[in-house]
Amino acid sequence: MHVSQRMRASVEALSIAHQINSTGVITLSAGVATLDPDRNRPAYDVLKEADDALYQAKERGGNRVECMTPISHLETGRSSRMSG
Q1: For residues 72 and 1, what is the distance between their CA atoms, to the nearest angstrom?
Q2: Cβ contact 41:35 at 8 Å
Q3: In angstroms, rounded to a whole number, what is the distance separating the alpha carbons of residues 21 and 28?
Q4: DSSP symbols for 7-41
Q5: What pLDDT does residue 77 have?
Q6: Is residue 38 packed enough to be buried (19+ CB in 10 Å), middle (13-18) or exposed (0-12)?
């Protein structure tokens, strides 16, 4: 999350003009997912979580980083989204 947030802020700080973006500058949205080496999960699951987090970031207005927790947390009733 920290690295992604720094990347997002760095892109925004460049202030590269973008007429279509509501902020008027190019911004970056990112989706983050983590892989626990102690759990045997398909790489597809991790990529799906990162993709879901990216779409969440875009839905929430863009220029942000969202993180998804592993899918197994959905089964335990814990929240699946963390925003940053």
Answers
A1: 20
A2: yes
A3: 11
A4: HHHHHHHT--B-SSSTTSB----EEEE---TTS--
A5: 36
A6: exposed
Q: What is the mean pLDDT of each run of 10 residues along the chain (84 residues)?
A: 95 91 87 87 90 96 88 40 44
Residue type, 29: S
Around 45, how many Cα atoms within 13 Å sit in the side-chain half-sphere? 13
Distance (Å, rounded) from C-alpha 48 to C-alpha 55?
A: 11
Inter-CA distances, 71 with 1, 29, 31, 64, Å: 18, 21, 15, 21
Number of domains in the chain: 1
The pLDDT score that the predictor gives to residue 39 is 82
* Coil, helix or strand at residue 68: strand
